[in-house]
Amino acid sequence: MQSKWSQLPGFLYLLPLFGVIGYSVVPYFWAIWLSVLMAGTLVYWVMRQVGMRSLPLPQTSLLFGLMMALTVLQWMLGALHSHSVALTTLGYLLTAGWMVVVGQVLRQVFGWATLASVCARAALATALAISLVSLFSQQPFALWFNLKQTVSQLHDFAAVSMAMGLSAWLYLAVQQQLSRWLAVVTAALLLAGTCLLLGAHGWWLIALLVLVALAQQIVAIRTHTGSRLRRLWLHFALLSVPVYSVLCWQLPHAPQATTAGAWQTIKVAAHIAFTHPWLGVGAGNVGWQSFLAITHPAIPGRVGVFNHAPNAFVQLLLEFGLFALLAWVVALVTWLRAIHWRMLQMEQLWLLSSVGLLFAVSLFSAPFHHLFYLMLLAFLLGVGDYQVKPLKRPVILTIASLASLLALLAALATVGVANAKLTQAARGSLQHPDTLAQLQWVHRYTLLAPFAERLFVQKIQVDHHDIDSKLWLTKSVMRYQPEMRAAYYHSLLLELGGKHSQAVSYLNATLNAYPIKLNSMLAYFSPMYMQHFLNVLLDARPPKKPAQHTQMTKPNDAT
Mapped to the 3 state alphabet, what secondary structure does 48-117 carry? Predict the structure, then answer.
């Protein structure tokens, strides 16, 4: 029975693959749903494992407790969108905090070697699956059309999974858990997948692998622990540089690195951070604040409004403020200092490389807004945390924990039903009574209420009927996650409601965030209201007057 439970942490690496399985109105719903289910299962196992004894509490778990306290404070101050966002954020953070404890208990029960082997194999399998899907979507394979859409969805988290796969390959190869031919084939697939998915963006991933291998060799030389296996690690890392370069050159579909628009995003993020330095803008409010902060038209085809900053640390600063960022930096430094550097084992090197790659990827993206990656980070931090304090667990805490697990199961069942209703409503008409009833139920009773509002906006008619309710709806959608349709709808509804100056101001901000052509704008509205919109548009973007050319005449000579 114990050996079966030791395999469960490997599913942490497989969870992102469920994000591209099946259509859902909520992005990556089933990956998140399964993440919560697995977290609850692991917590239940931990509670049974420790029994009535004291619960080991790693200090890293206090970080998530601090962020939960900040979330509650933001909620009390009215900085969050709704109670749905507040409860969802608290649920994410509580799940991550428990995963720190789970990682610590699993290491104590199963040991370093078993845990590292299970996780490395799962990470390698995930990266190979992503690489194969990407490869078969290219010519001359192109097995089926839907594979193209799957690859585009894989781009959202491919960097993290590929990084974990490369780290896992190194560990398994050095530990001689891969045969020679299997090692060669998997290495070729991993590098090809990295080229196809990341292209010129992947150079830093290979560079970091080389740095990790060099650091490991320096430690081995200083501690006189060098070996043939460790030299193999270094040789593979160095060899991956020319191999990766050749693959990037040979694979024509590899994306190229682009920087246009990046400076505008950084500038907007810096403005938001300086405007809200201490407690941040609130969890989930980055998109709305970026919409308000854009003062010039965004570069067409590039990022204008962004819900997640292009850096996880910047995202943390924006959402939770300077105190949370400093707390994370101090905690990570403390976590690293507690490691016994002179007695490092190969499994600990695997852990350090995995955590290092996770944070390296987070320098170029913000992957931890996905629960499955936040859980993975928390789990790895818990595995490697050496500063643990026993927490005596009274009976009341046991009862509260069991009640929380039951509430978790009820919440999973509720959001599962809500997601099914949203998916069905997305294919129906708002005028149909069943569609309206389904959306109203989701909006009133579940945590997926913001997604019901977004569907309402896509299906409403912009007219004089019930303007106040429609204004509230479009404002709420923009406050949660800004989108182009809701922004243009809101500006016209303000005009229809007799608020011309507010409509002009709002349309001006909308044109900065979503600079589209006039024909595309007018396609959103009924013909009878086009003139109302054009009136707002002419005041928001008055036509430039033609330059007055004065004819220069030569003055007559004085006579």
Answer: HHHCCCCEEEECCHHHHHHHHHHHHHHHHCCCCCCHHHHHHHHHHHHHHHHHHHHHHHHHHHHHHHHHHH
